[in-house]
Amino acid sequence: MRLRGLLLLTAVVLMGCVATAGASALSSVELIEHPAEWDGRVIVFTGEAVGEAMVRGEEAWLHLNDDAYVDGSIAGGAEPQGYNSGMAVVADAEDAAAITVFGDYRHQGDVVEVSGVFNAACPEHGGDMDIHATGLRIVREGAPVTRLVDYTRVVALGITLAAAILAVLWYTARSSRD
Questions:
Q1: Under CATH, what is the fold of the domain 24-147?
Q2: How far apart (Å, rounded) are the C-alpha atoms in residues 38 and 30?
Q3: Which of 60, 70, 81, 133 could be bridged to 114 by S-S, CB 3.0 to 4.6 A?
């Protein structure tokens, strides 16, 4: 009985390996800088779901960012590390419904892994660069961003406000004497 379970587990693992054989995990930078090299090939792409799912019939358009902010936003305390970058993904609307949190100013979005065909200039979508997802899975669930208070800015605001009030009082007192 144990042997049968071990054989079944081995078969499942091997089928998973065959299903992703030939797929390459890539970054948006690699895809944007070398689109011809990847055009029409099956790839794996991982990024934070941002914005919202734009459902159009059976399809949903998604945007997945794979930049430095996937693991933490500036609003949550991460240091600025360059620009946002990511890829447009066309997925089955039912698969896209698995994404529950999209990144925005108040949320870190779900991190999603898609496998699918990369199109350098998709003829189906007006020449846009996109990935037509054939598989989608949530790697990490999103969450609200805990905003950190920058006390240096609060102190600077207090000093500036106090200086402005003193300047107005001084000007008012001086004007009333003249």
A1: OB fold (Dihydrolipoamide Acetyltransferase, E2P) (2.40.50)
A2: 9
A3: 133
Structure tokens at 98: 């698995």
The residues, any chain, with a CB within 8 Å of residue 131's CB and separated by 6 or more, are 43, 45, 87, 88, 89, 90, 114, 116, 117, 118, 119
Which residue from 50, 64, 34, 33 is spatially nearest to 133, judged by alpha carbons? 64
Q: For residues 11 and 15, give the distance between their C-alpha atoms in angstroms, rounded to a whole number.
A: 6
| Tokens of residue 93, six digits | 């609307």
76-121 per-position pLDDT tens digit: 777 877 778 899 999 999 999 999 999 998 899 999 999 999 999 9
Whole-prediction pTM: 0.70
Q: What six digits make up the tokens of 138?
A: 């949530």
